[in-house]
What does this fold into?
Amino acid sequence: MSLEAAFTTCTGRFALDVAIEAHGEIVVLFGASGAGKSLTLRAIAGLVRPDRGRITLDGEVLFDAANGIDLPPEARRTGYVVQELALFPHLSVWENVAFALPGTRADRRQRAEASLAALGLEGAGDRDLGTLSGGQRQRVALARVLVRDVRLLLLDEPFSALDDAIRRSLRLELRRLQRELGRGALFVTHDLREAYLLADRFVVLDAGRVLQAGAPDDIFSRPVSGRVAELLGVRNLYRGRVVATAPDSIEVEVGPLRWRCASWVGVLRVGDTVDVAVRSERVVLRRGDRPATNALDAIVEVEEAYGANHLLQMRPLAGGPLIEVDMPARPYEVLGVATRKQWSLELPPQDLHVMPAAGSVEA
It folds into this structure.
């Protein structure tokens, strides 16, 4: 499966301008609400006609504004699943899956039952929808798509209304189906954890534009801008100035603090204004018993516990911005963090990432 889509469209005051590729993989479209994720899927499905651009699937042209080509949704062989499943409550499970399939009733039922079995619903064909759990109904919706031998799945936050355990089960199911059937999928979500767990390829959208696309690990470790870092959940994001450069590092001043950073994007020079990011789980809390690069003394100003982790808001004694530390419960207990307020923080150079300044970041 190979999708190539590059198009623009305007809806009211919102302008969408995207270029997306998928090649037999799960591509996650991630962004805040209103970024254009769902509109992108609807355009690829043929439910919205772009103003300009071209969309091809396995070499077949689905849409080409310049040549007047715009295949209807039923001719595109894509399967579109949304959070509101649009199942028919008056039909049985198998009848929902077989709805609008050609062929005799017996043939349609056979195909529906095979699709249900592939999703772990063998023997459920005669049940009423009202007897199914939320996760089972979601499987029925996926079975209805898969029975049509679609080339590309378009999944618009299909698991968002389900609890965590069911979402995990369905993520594993989707992964298995993608491997076994070799079908690609575009998966829309604003859940960062879900996006990371599912994505072979990650596309970050914001205000109708693709900000960054690539492998999940690359994007999480090397965001191209402060806005991407912010969307990916980086809370330690600071405005600074480059004060020195070397082949393997860059030194940045953030207020009164000076840090050596070993990760950056773009060509940076002394004097450039930059954004500096470090994920809170990468900040090291130490007793201060040995020297370290980018070490500083700080006190705990705010502490929050959530599940098996603790969030600490630390104020450097030398001044400068608050630094958030995300600690698992075990090291928190071993170090005895609850018993004292002053600690030494270490910001490893390889975890400090520098980007050309863009937008507004508080120092």
